[in-house]
Amino acid sequence: MLNPVLVVSDLSVERSGRLAVEKVSFELQSESETAVVGPNGAGKSTLVAALLGLLPRKEGDVQILGEQLSANGDLPGAIRSQIAYVPQSLALQGRFPLSVAEFVGFGFDPPGPRWPWQQHRQRSTAVEKALDRTGCIDLRNRLLSELSGGQLKRVMLSFCVVRPRQLLVLDEAQAGLDVPSNERFQQLLLELRRQEGWTVLHVSHDLDMVRRSSDQVLGLNRRLCCSGSPDHTLTPERLVDLYGPNMVQYRHQCHG
Amino acid sequence: MVDTQALALVLAEPFMQRALIGGLLTGALGGLLGSVAVLRELSFFSDALGHSALLGITAGILIGVNPTLVLIPFAVVFAILVNQLVERSSLPTDALLNIVYSTSLAAAILFLSLVESYRGGIRQLLFGDILGVSSLDLIVISILLVAALIYLCLSMRAQVLLTLNQELAGAVGVQTRWHRLAFIVLLAVVVAVSIKAVGVLLISAFVVIPSCAGRLLCRRFPIYVFVSSILGGTCALLGLLASGLTNLPSGPSVVMVQFLGFLIALILSSRVFRRPSTTALDPQI
Question: ipTM of the predicted structure?
Fold first, then answer.
């Protein structure tokens, strides 16, 4: 029996003075992949931010790897270092003097103050491995601000895989990736789950990809409209419930 | 051609020696903090802080306390209040800063016009008086430089991640609110301490210009921080020497040297360091 990595109970979150997430409950089992789907403004990114302790909760509980997330979003350092997160984008206006290898190296360091030269050798080795694993080794000396959107997404994944983790949270991480990069990204997620026991929670608009890769789907439109396996959740009737009557399910012919 | 005899005479003066050391330290400190401030789009914040400092100085004059003693607590409180305002308001940051700094500047000038004995010193407040830097000022600036260096070294990961994406920083355990506030308070203290030497109008140049030059030249973050600081210190030193030799005002001379340094960095970055874009050729994308 696998243990739940994340347990969410009756979670409600306010954002900009309105209830963005209401009474949401679910669990993530170890080594599973769960997708959060829903229309724009449904509260998907708000849910992710609250789970990571970045937004205060109005009510409800969040338990990560057996530890309760405190009201102000604190978690013990040992638990925090088991969580990886890929945001939608990075603020890279203009020339940003930071190389890909340096950025990924920051993913290796544990939370808390430390001198930049501490564990330099171990960090360098881990960075090389992570970049190789995500197919970014040729980008290691490039500036972060010189990368395309797709390259940046892969580098952000390198930031996550540079050290062992247990929970990976992705906020529309695959948006902007072309088909081969998307397949490679998905393949890596599968490897991380099967070989290293990672659990993946991702926000996505690509229902076709969700159908193929996820074990569990959470249909969110402020409240949890539906949840369960993709076959159970992504039915035309449930999608209309979730997205509204104008929902037209588009499936790529190559996967049809 | 540099007149070596004139240079030796200038360097022999104790006030000039203090000014050179003060300029070197202030320039290095401005470049050091500016490297992070510019990336975090806080350039205008340092400008607003500098202009608003005039209100702190005026407050000191009005209550009969040495303005330098009032300036640091004033700048810290001002920075914290502005930070709160920016965090809680839905208005754009640059607009809010503009409102705050133009209002406090206007209030300071109105109050200053009531103080007869200080009217003659307004030029000194606006453009600074690096030649009036005391030994105590040098000690305070040195302590600040060491403190800023230690803080930035220990929190480099936090500063970079906070700049790139606040949520990413929070997710990996960076105390985002604490670090944002700590950096702003540090910047406020540095601006307050540097005002005497650099002046209200030119303080933001010390923070912005060397770090923009460094940003154009460097491809590694620690090197960028180091180069910005070195550029800041060197430009200040050269500017003060030029000022001493030509008898031109010191603050503006330093800023002109900084601008010259920026132009050189701009030319170098476009000619020497230009790389062809390989994005379209990357077979993996």
Answer: 0.86
- pLDDT of amino acid A247: 66
The distance of Cα A173 from the centroid of its chain, to the nearest Å, equals 7
Q: Tens digit of pLDDT for each residue in B80-135? A: 888 888 888 888 888 888 888 888 888 888 887 777 665 546 677 777 777 778 88
As assigned by CATH, the class of the A4-82+165-255 domain is alpha beta
Between the alpha carbon of residue A184 and those of residues A42, A147, A214, B177, B247, the distances in Å are 28, 18, 16, 36, 66
Identify the pLDDT of residue B282.
42
pLDDT tens digits along A220-253: 999 998 889 998 888 888 888 888 776 655 444 4
Distances (CA, A) of B83 to B88, B178, B270: 9, 12, 36
Asked whether residue A101 carries a pLDDT value surpassing 80, the answer given is: yes
All structural domains of chain A with their residue ranges: 4-82+165-255, 96-164
Q: Which amino acid is at B26?
A: T
Contact B171 A52 (CB under 8 A): yes
pLDDT tens-digit map of A180-227 = 888 888 888 898 998 889 999 999 888 888 888 899 999 999 999 888
B167 interface with A at CB cutoff 8 Å: yes
Using a CB–CB cutoff of 8 Å, tell me whether B285 touches chain A.
yes
Confirm or reject contact between A149 and chain B (CB < 8 A): no
CATH no. for B4-268: 1.10.3470.10
- The helix (H) or strand (E) run that includes residue B46 is helix B43-63
What whole-number distance in Å separates Cα of residue A53 and Cα of residue A203?
17
Residue A64 CA to residue B62 CA, distance in Å, equals 56
Measured between CA atoms, the residue of chain A closest to residue B227 is A97
β-pair type (A199-203, A167-171): parallel
Q: Tell me if B57 sits within 8 A of B124, measured CB to CB.
A: no
Q: A187 is written with which tokens?
A: 């393949």
Indicate the SS3 state at residue A216: strand
Interface probe with A: pick from B41, B168, B279, most Cβ of A within 10 Å = B168
B173-191 pLDDT per residue, tens: 899 889 999 999 999 998 8
Q: DSSP secondary structure string, B80-136?
A: HHHHHHHHH--S-HHHHHHHHHHHHHHHHHHHHHH-GGGGGGHHHHHH--GGG--HH
- How far lies A246's CA from each of A221, A239, B146, B275, in Å? 15, 10, 62, 48
Q: What per-residue string of b and e applies to A152-190 under the rule 16 or more CB within 10 Å gives b?
A: bbbbbbbbbbbbebbbbbbbbbbbbbeeebbebbbebbe
**A169 interface with B at CB cutoff 8 Å:** yes
Check CB contact of A235 with chain B, cutoff 8 Å.
no
Residue B161: which pLDDT band, with cuts at 50, 70 and 90? Answer: very high
Burial grade of B122 (CB within 10 A; 0-12, 13-18, 19 or more)? middle
Percentage with pLDDT > 90 across chain B? 38
